[in-house]
Amino acid sequence: MNVPVSQFITVEGTEGAGKSTCIEHIQQWALQNEIPLVCTREPGGTPLAEQIRDILLEARDEQVDGLAELLLVFAARAQHLNGWILPNIKAGKWVLSDRFTDATYAYQGAGRGLSTDQIVALETLVQGGFQPALTLLLDLPVEVGLERARQRSEPDRFELEQQEFFEKVRAGYRERAKQQPWRVKIIDASKAPEQVAEQLVEALDQWLASLR
Ligand code: TMP
User: Fold this and answer.
1) Residue 26: which domain range?
2) Among 59, 74, 128, 208, which residue's CB has the most CB atoms within a 10 Å radius?
């Protein structure tokens, strides 16, 4: 296959947007296209980064400082990137991550109101110029996603946030898509499952064709 030997793809969206189903479709698509895809998630992806995830997601009485949250997110990312993502990419794998730095711009930036400059500085420190080649942003009205997410399990610290927070997160994600349209593709996740799957495959096929 005449495509680069490795790539980095991410899936993003607010709570209940259907990321897990989307990831299954991408895995299926990769199999059909004989792409050696490995999957991971953020925060998390290595034993240490998963411990940081537990700290970040645990609902607690203590107010979590926004900067502390941001630093924890990037601490987990440094471990994940250097300990798992880059070694896999160097080995010729394609890596699919359930969330990456667009989530930081959306949740800590737009949601919590932390400054973009701080996020850019940490992104540069941790990633250099490393970016996903393709980001599939599952976009849907916040109330629809929250309803789905809350039916699933006990809410984590983020899921306990109010709708207003997630409206800001959604707007933050959409802004990322506007700023970097060559990389971030919006998928209308409010549609029926088969229509969401069609949009995903179309975006993936178009992107793969652009690599050839
Ligand atoms: P999820 O795996 O269910 O998507 O949960 C991860 C949570 O972590 C989600 O609520 C979003 C949040 N998060 C951030 O706030 N910033 C980040 O950079 C990342 C990767 C996730």
Assistant:
1) 5-211
2) 74
Who contacts 206 (Cβ-Cβ below 8 Å, separation ≥6)? none
Pocket of ligand 1 (CB under 6 A): 41-43, 73, 99, 103-104, 107-108, 158
Query: How is the beta sheet containing 94-98 ordered, strand by strand?
Result: 37-41, 94-98, 8-13, 134-139, 184-188
Domain with residue 187: its CATH number is 3.40.50.300
Sign of CA dihedral 74, 173, 50, 85: negative
Half-sphere exposure of 114 (CA within 13 A, CB side): 21
pTM over 0.90: yes
One-letter amino acid for residue 147 of the chain: E
For 149-169, write each residue's pLDDT tens digit: 888 878 899 999 999 999 999
Residue 56 Cα: closest atom of ligand 1: 8
Taking the centre of ligand 1 as the mean of its atom positions, its distance from the CA of residue 198, in whole angstroms, is 26
Which residues touch 143 (CB under 8 Å, ≥6 apart)? 163
- Closest atom, ligand 1, to C-alpha of 99: 20
Q: How many structural domains compose the chain?
A: 1
pLDDT for residue 211 is more than 70:
yes
